[in-house]
Amino acid sequence: VSFVVAVPPELKFAALRVAGIADLVAQAGAAMAEPTTLVTAAAHDEVSAAVAALFGAYGKQFQVAQAH
């Protein structure tokens, strides 16, 4: 038979720490919104423009996913 002992003050402290981590991740994601969605093409050709658009699209999808 297993027993679990929960100590409320320690659980509250752990929950606050996890909430703090979540806030930091959200702030970091917001700070990266522009760099991950506005990718500049490496050169002035069609391939570079297509690659930049592809990475920019992935950045936008990341921002949408992170917002939820």
Please provide a written account of the structure.
This protein is mainly alpha-helical. 75% of the residues lie in helices and 0% in strands. The chain contains three helices and no strands. The chain has helices at residues 8-31, 33-37, 46-67. The chain is elongated, with a radius of gyration of 20 Å. The model has no long low-confidence stretch (mean pLDDT 86).
How far apart lie the N and C ends? 40 Å
Helix content: over 70%
What is the strand content?
A: under 5%
Largest sheet: none
Helix-strand category: mainly alpha
Could you list the spans in which at least 5 consecutive residues all have pLDDT below 50? none
Coarse morphology: elongated
Radius of gyration, CA atoms, in whole angstroms: 20 Å
| Number of strand segments | 0
Mean pLDDT value: 86
Compute the number of helices. 3
H/E series: HHH
Question: How do the helices and strands line up, and which of them pair or pack?
Answer:
Layout: H1 8-31, H2 33-37, H3 46-67
Task: Describe the structure concisely for a colleague.
The protein has 68 residues and is mostly helical. The chain contains three helices and no strands.
Structure characteristics:
single chain; 68 residues; mainly alpha; 3 helices; 75% helix; 0% strand; elongated
